[in-house]
Every structure is written in structure tokens, then in C-alpha cells.
Design a protein that fits this description.
The chain is α/β, with parallel strands linked by helices and about 400 residues long. The protein folds into 2 domains: about 5-155 and about 295-370, Response regulator (Rossmann fold, 3-Layer(aba) Sandwich), CATH 3.40.50.2300; about 160-290 and about 385-395, Response regulator (Rossmann fold), CATH 3.40.50. The protein contains 12 helices and 18 strands. The protein has a 4-stranded mixed beta sheet, sandwiched between helices. A hairpin with a 2-residue loop joins strand 17 (about 385-390) and strand 18. The longest helix has 20 residues, at about 45-65. It starts with a helix and ends in a 16-residue tail after the last strand. The model is unreliable at about 1-25 (pLDDT under 50).
Length: about 400
């Protein structure tokens, strides 16, 4: 199926007005089709990643349906997703999920994009006791509230850039320096995800005794971090760490190039999703980019085969992708969990399916999936990639590295 046909199917699914099986504890099923719901960002500041996630969801649905669908109670069902655009606004996310439950009769959900919108979604799931398998809300604060109906396939956000601190310490020691001699500069969006990333960086910097010389908040619109970069020029840190979703990554990469920022190590989130290599070329070489998934990892499953196989199929299905964002891969993984859970429960009862989700242990092209009692995935690590001649290569942890790290970085 090509991307045009997929987009047509998505557009049609947005307008579904379906039937609800007997009783409020049943999934929305139309004939031989199970409807999953999602309020996700197609417009607003998170729209880039919202569309990446939607593409991942649709590829998961396509593959499951091609392989015969989902078997429940001796019958076979197809999957379809009903979407609404939450406009990157948490309040709108909550309103649309209420609509999906109360007006559309949807009882099973895929998550929105971002920790902020997922924080708005979680209480709705608890209120109606309907499960959500989410792939894009990484804030660890989602998993200390006692939620019973929220499950996340991705690693939590404090892990994203902490690995860059460990890598900087390792490189310092190899070069005869003490990690405690290193200076760190940071700038983060003021949102739940990025603030959790910041917390992980600070914890690891403290562990190594590193000095944080800049600790800035990005402006709300994420359009300009030149004030932070001016301080970077003056203070000459050893490591610059940035996190502001796709828009923040694009702004950071653009202004680092414009201002000729020369820092030995630069690490930022959302490199691939922001398509910084195609936008800013060689100036992004040697940037370090955390990822939930990479096509070079040795993960595989019965649906897509290897991580590399998934990468090829995604690029074949959707136009314009030089690199597959991990946001898409983890979205697909969430759909796979739904299939496994329905079949394990062999029921459309929300409580039985929720219990089945909580006991899932599976290997996928995206990595292992096993949920803690809090609902986060405890079976998959983060990895760190470096842009090397325009390619994203895994450089840390060393167990997963496909290439040695380039250091120090020089401005281009």
C-alpha cells in the first residue's frame, strides 16, 4: 500500500460514526472492524511528530490487517483508527478523548503526541476505565500517579540525554581529564518531557561532579535561542545539551550553524524528527541524538522482521523520509501490543483486555516490551546516535554501538 492510499484510509477513518457493542465495557466494533481512538497533533507546534506517530500507527494497522487481523472469540477482526486533531493543546486532547468515549463509543486508545498531551489524556482513561497504549509520552511523572489504564512502550524521558553525560565523562577520562573538570551548558523547553530530560542530565552531571554553567529555558514559541548560544560562545562549555521537541531542535541546529557555535560535544533530542540533516547539512555532523530505536539494532519480530526490515518498509510506504524517526517506530509497536492484548484476553471486555496488556511480554522490531506495575516499559534501553557524514550511527552504549564516536566536534 502506498502513502496516498494510506492517507485516504486515515481521512476516511476520522469521520467514522459507529455502533457500540452491548454495554459500556465493550470495544467499539463495526462489523468485522475494531476501532481504536486517538486524539493527536496534526496542527500546532507538535504537528511534525504527530504526523510521524500517525504514520507509525497506520503502518502497524496495515501490517496486522495484511497478516489476517486480530482473532477474538473465534472471529477475525480488522483494526482501524479514528483520529481527531488535538492541535497540540492538552485541553483539546482531553475534550476530544471525552468525545471519543461518550459520543463515538470508542473504548480502546492509542496515545497523543507529547508528554503534555498524554498528561491530559491519562485522567480521562482512568475516569472511564478504558485502556490507552501510548508511544509518545515519555515523562516519568506519568508513571508515579498510580494510573492503571495507561501503558507506554517507550523509555522514560530522564534517560534521553543522560547518556551524553556518561559519554562525555568516558571521553574525558580517555584523554587524561577528570569528568569533574567538564562544563555543561543546557537549554530546555518548559514542558513535562524536556524538564524530565533536564532532570536526568542534572542527576548524571552531579554524579560526575560536572559544573553546569548555563541552565536556560527556551522561549515559549521555540523560535530563538540566540541568547543561550551567545553565552555558550563566552563560557566555552565542553558539552551543550538541548531539548525542545522538533521545533526546538530545528531552531537549535539553525542557530548553531548561523552563529558558528564551536563546542566539542553537542547533544539534542528530536534530530531525525526535525530532519536537521536535510535542512542544515554538514553543520549538523557530530551532533549526538538520543533515540528509542535504530534500524541497526538487532531487534526482530514475527510482524516486520528485523529493525532494518521495518526501516525499509516504512521508507517504501511513506514518501520523504531519509531517516525513520523513532516516534514512528514506537507508534507501530503500540499497535502490535493491541493485537497481542486482544488475543491474549480473547475478549472485548475492557477490564480483561487491560489485565492482558499489563501481563504482556514480547519482543518486537522496536525492542522488548514489558510493563512495570506503573505502566512504563522496563524491557528496552535508550541508545545514542551521532550524525556522521549525514548518517545516524549508534555510538553508545558501547554494547549497541555500530560506529566509534567522533570527538571533538568542530563548527562547519
Amino acid at each position: 500500500m502506498n502513502s496516498t492510499r494510506l492517507l485516504t484510509a486515515v481521512s476516511a477513518s476520522v469521520a467514522i460514526a459507529g455502533l457500540v457493542m452491548s454495554g459500556p465495557a465493550q470495544a467499539k466494533v463495526e462489523g468485522d472492524t475494531i476501532i481504536l481512538g486517538s486524539a493527536i497533533s496534526f496542527t500546532g507546534k507538535y504537528s511534525t511528530n504527530g504526523i510521524h506517530a500517525k504514520n507509525g500507527y497506520e503502518l502497524g494497522v496495515m501490517k496486522i490487517n495484511e497478516m489476517g487481523g486480530v482473532k477474538v472469540g473465534g472471529k477475525t477482526y480488522k483494526l482501524k483508527i479514528q483520529y481527531y486533531d488535538d492541535e497540540s493543546t492538552p485541553l483539546r486532547t482531553a475534550q476530544l478523548l471525552e468525545r471519543l468515549v461518550n459520543q463515538d463509543g470508542v473504548k480502546y486508545f492509542l496515545g497523543p503526541y507529547s508528554s503534555a498531551t498524554t498528561k491530559a489524556a491519562a485522567p480521562i482513561m482512568e475516569k472511564y476505565k478504558v485502556p490507552m497504549i501510548e508511544a509518545e509520552g515519555a515523562s516519568r511523572s506519568l508513571f508515579n500517579k498510580g494510573y492503571k489504564y495507561l501503558f507506554a512502550v517507550l523509555s522514560t524521558s530522564e534517560q534521553y540525554l543522560a547518556s551524553s553525560i556518561s559519554l562525555a565523562a568516558e571521553i574525558a577520562e580517555k584523554n587524561g581529564k577528570k569528568p569533574s573538570d567538564l562544563k555543561v551548558a543546557m537549554a530546555f523547553e518548559n514542558d513535562p518531557f524536556s524538564l524530565d530530560v533536564r532532570a536526568g542530565v542534572l542527576e548524571d552531571a552531579k554524579k560526575y561532579g560536572m559544573k553546569v554553567v548555563i541552565d536556560d529555558k527556551m522561549p515559549r514559541d521555540l523560535n530563538d535561542i540566540s541568547s543561550t548560544l551567545t553565552k555558550v560562545k563566552a563560557l566555552k562549555p565542553d558539552l551543550l545539551v538541548l531539548s525542545g521537541h522538533s521545533k526546538g531542535a530545528a531552531t537549535g541546529a539553525r542557530q548553531i550553524k548561523e552563529m558558528k557555535i564551536n563546542v566539542p560535544m553537542i547533544a539534542m533530542t528530536h534530530c531525525e524528527a526535525a530532519k536537521i540533516t536535510s535542512k542544515f547539512g554538514a553543520s549538523t555532523d557530530d551532533f549526538l541524538c538520543p533515540t528509542q530505536w535504530a534500524e541497526t539494532l538487532s531487534y526482530k519480530d514475527k510482524y516486520f522482521g528485523t529493525a532494518a526490515d521495518y526501516d525499509k518498509l516504512f521508507k517504501k510506504t511513506f514518501d520523504g523520509y531519509k531517516n525513520v524517526p523513532y516516534q514512528s517506530a514506537q507508534a507501530t509497536a503500540a499497535v502490535l501490543v493491541w493485537k497481542e492484548a486482544f488475543e491474549k484476553a480473547d475478549s472485548f471486555d475492557t477490564t480483561k483486555v487491560r489485565d492482558a496488556i499489563s501481563s504482556i511480554e514480547m519482543e518486537t522490531f522496536y525492542g522488548g516490551i514489558k510493563f512495570s506495575p506503573a505502566g512504563n516499559n522496563v524491557a528496552k534501553p535508550m541508545v545514542l546516535r551521532q550524525i556522521q557524514n549525514g548518517q545516524y550511527n549508534v555510538v553508545a552504549p558501547s554494547k549497541w554501538a555500530s560506529h566509534p564516536v567522533n570527538w571533538p566536534r568542530t563548527a562547519k
